[in-house]
């Protein structure tokens, strides 16, 4: 039997070289957990101490949370809307908790990769360049032809090579993409995943046009929403097929240290994706409020109403819509309701303001 996470931490003194360095950082951070001084004092400050160097990572928790990549749009000779992106795989060490570094494989230098956003019915082109040291691909969770699937023989790309995936944007919803090269669990876990958001085209949904307008970026109906991308992930920093850290958007406790500012007068929409490897499920539990949930985001009416916890297996995703308009301002925690995940990094706050 391989050692458990706890046995591994206990055995760290016996390791050498780079593995020991990573493991010692893990141990140091683990020892510091529970003695932190970060936000969430009411919770005993049960978090890490110190700060991640976001400049060195090349991305900030706020960017991961709020920035959508709309690509380049054009109209083809047939009059069809086309949207194009360029995504490059690069090997990159990232800091996932203060002093804890993970040798990631990334799309465009970030984990998760860019949050690709488009509109139902568009023609999507993704030029994928493999600048990494292993074969990689982009496998889209969408409706598409077999030859665009990103598996072996269908768009898998050797180091230094490129491939252009071309698919129609369907179905609308909250989806994901990830590398589909074997060994799959290692290629995904190393960081090759991201969110694919296909907004519904209101013209195609006359019966539910208002709901579709509220989801379609660029409309006045959509502008009032406060939208966030949240990818639940974990990191195996000592390569024992168990996660030492968990997070929402990679950086342990990032939104506990700096709560997400939300105006109570405006509704909140979360694009929630679970890519956590090694553990069967992950979850999203909100304090002090309940919410509506749209499994996979492929419907315009909720698939669950008035819940405060949802679970997702790996690859599952959905929309969460939250209304704080009747609430007093303050800090509202949300976290994985696997308590271990929460205590190892997947714990966050909304700071609801009186606006
Ligand atoms: Cu890969």
Provide a descriptive summary of the structure in words:
By secondary structure, the protein is an alpha+beta fold. The chain is 16% helix and 36% strand. The chain has two domains: 5-54 and 226-353, Sandwich (Immunoglobulin-like); 68-223, Cupredoxins -  blue copper proteins (Immunoglobulin-like). It has helices at 5-10, 17-32, 54-57, 61-66, 184-189, 209-215, 220-223, 254-257, 339-343; strands at residues 72-75, 81-97, 100-107, 116-119, 123-130, 139-140, 162-168, 173-178, 193-199, 226-235, 245-248, 260-263, 268-274, 281-286, 291-295, 304-307, 309-313, 317-322, 330-335, 347-353. The strands form four sheets. The chain has a six-stranded mixed sheet with strand order 11-10-13-18-15-16. It is globular. The termini are far apart. The model is unreliable at 8-44 (pLDDT under 50).
Task: Summarize the entry for a quick read.
This protein is α+β, with helices and mostly antiparallel strands and 355 residues long. The protein has 9 helices and 20 strands. The chain folds into 2 domains: 5-54 and 226-353, Cupredoxins -  blue copper proteins (Immunoglobulin-like); 68-223, Immunoglobulin-like (Sandwich), CATH 2.60.40.
């Amino acid at each position: 039997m391989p050692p458990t996470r706890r046995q591994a931490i206990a055995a760290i003194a016996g390791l050498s070289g780079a593995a020991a360095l990573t493991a010692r950082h893990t141990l140091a951070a683990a020892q510091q957990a529970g003695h932190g001084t970060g936000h969430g004092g009411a919770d005993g400050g049960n978090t890490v101490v110190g700060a991640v160097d976001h400049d060195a990572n090349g991305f900030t928790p706020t960017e991961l949370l709020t920035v959508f990549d709309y690509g380049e749009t054009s109209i083809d000779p047939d009059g069809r809307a086309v949207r194009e992106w360029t995504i490059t795989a690069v090997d990159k060490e990232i800091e996932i908790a203060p002093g804890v570094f993970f040798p990631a494989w990334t799309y465009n230098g970030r984990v998760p990769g860019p949050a690709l956003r488009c509109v139902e019915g568009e023609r999507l082109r993704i030029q994928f360049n493999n600048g990494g040291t292993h074969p990689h691909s982009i496998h889209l969770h969408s409706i598409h032809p077999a030859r665009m699937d990103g598996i072996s023989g269908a768009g898998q790309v050797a180091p230094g090579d490129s491939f252009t995936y071309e698919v129609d944007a369907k179905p609308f919803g909250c989806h994901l993409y990830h590398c589909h090269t074997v060994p799959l669990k290692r290629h995904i876990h190393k960081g090759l995943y991201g969110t694919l958001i296909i907004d519904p085209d209101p013209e195609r949904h006359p019966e539910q046009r208002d709901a579709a307008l509220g989801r379609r970026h660029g409309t006045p109906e959509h502008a009032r929403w406060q939208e966030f991308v949240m990818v639940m992930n974990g990191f195996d920093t000592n390569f024992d097929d168990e996660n030492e850290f968990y997070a929402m958007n990679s950086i342990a406790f990032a939104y506990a240290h700096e709560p997400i500012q939300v105006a109570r007068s405006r509704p909140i929409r979360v694009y929630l994706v679970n890519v956590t490897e090694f553990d069967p499920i992950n979850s999203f539990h909100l304090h002090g409020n309940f919410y509506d949930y749209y499994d996979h985001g492929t419907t315009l009416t909720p698939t669950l109403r008035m819940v405060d916890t949802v679970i997702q297996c790996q690859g599952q995703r959905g929309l969460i819509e939250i209304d704080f308009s009747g609430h007093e301002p303050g800090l509202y925690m949300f976290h994985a309701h696997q308590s271990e995940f929460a205590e190892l990094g997947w714990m966050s706050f909304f700071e609801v303001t009186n606006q």
